[in-house]
Amino acid sequence: MSDEALRAMIVTAVAQLRASTDLTMSEIIGVSALPESARTPEVCYSLGVIAGAAAALRGTQHELLDELDLLLAPKRG
Hints:
This protein is mainly alpha-helical. It has helices spanning 3-20, 25-29, 41-56, 61-67. The chain has one domain (3-67).
């Protein structure tokens, strides 16, 4: 898989997670657990994409999202 394809998958997963919950990415991938009501199949899939990509690249989810500048949401204007 090319770097661009992997990035596109991760960007899509992050967008899905941001649209589904008002938690920060750090809260989603960190110690805090998602509420049961937020655990839709799409959210679980997106979490799996991020976890799988991080494992494949031998890093943490936090490191992966930080490196791709996806950890923090863009400022809304």
